[in-house]
Amino acid sequence: MEELRDKLLQHLFEINEDKDKISEGLKLSRETYRAYRHHSQRIKTYYLSMVGVGLAAALFLGFAFLPSLTRLNSEQVFRQNYQRFKFQINDRGFGLTDPLTLSADLYMGGRLDEAIRKVDSLLTVKPDEIRAFLIKGLAELDKGNYQAAKAALTPVIGSGGSLGTTAEWYLSLIDLRDAKYQSAAEGLKKVKEDSNSPYSKKAAKLYHRLRYRKNK
Questions:
Q1: In this predicted model, what pLDDT tens digit does every residue of 114-159 receive, in sequence order?
Q2: Taking a C-beta distance cutoff of 8 angstroms, is the pair 209, 68 a contact?
Q3: In CATH, what number does 74-210 get?
């Protein structure tokens, strides 16, 4: 009888041990599950943040490169941005009969051939007269003689100041028309950085469209 009781007590003891082990196992399982859930949540949060960063970067690059990737009709954009230059008093000669004043007035009045002849005559006497080169380049440009205009406007760039920036603007438009986009972008960058230039805002918009575009 005592032997039977001892065996029964032994079984109850083993059952209690198994119960404690099961409880401990369940506790560890719950803690492991919670740790797993926490780790999974961190991974999910990190993944979502990386996706957000990636989308933001893609959108930024898309907005940055889109103007340079879309098709561009260089002739049409040239016409949209080209306007005849309006000479100010300080851009012309001294007095109404000054050859520079007469040439500028002829140009603004659309008498382009007369303006070119007048400045050509002046340049034989004053070969370094920058304003004469500017008038000649603008007149040739208005006639559609783009290479002659480029040759006349190029020396004006080195003079600096407002006339230099003006020449840079029109030369950039010529390069744009000829689909020399990188050269045009370089010129437009200089114009947009001149806050005193009336062309700075237009130059900034065009520069944004051309800066990543390859030449045809």
A1: 999 999 999 999 999 999 999 999 999 999 999 999 999 999 998 8
A2: yes
A3: 1.25.40.10
3-class secondary-structure state, position 82: coil
Return the pLDDT at 23.
63
Q: Where are the domains of the chain?
A: 1-69, 74-210
Are residues 156 and 177 in contact, defined by beta-carbon separation less than 8 angstroms? no
Which residue carries 């898309």 as its tokens? Answer: 62
What's the pLDDT score for residue 138?
A: 98
- The residues, any chain, with a CB within 8 Å of residue 184's CB and separated by 6 or more, are 172, 173, 175, 176, 206, 210
Contact 175, 183 (CB under 8 A): yes
> What pLDDT was estimated at residue 208?
94
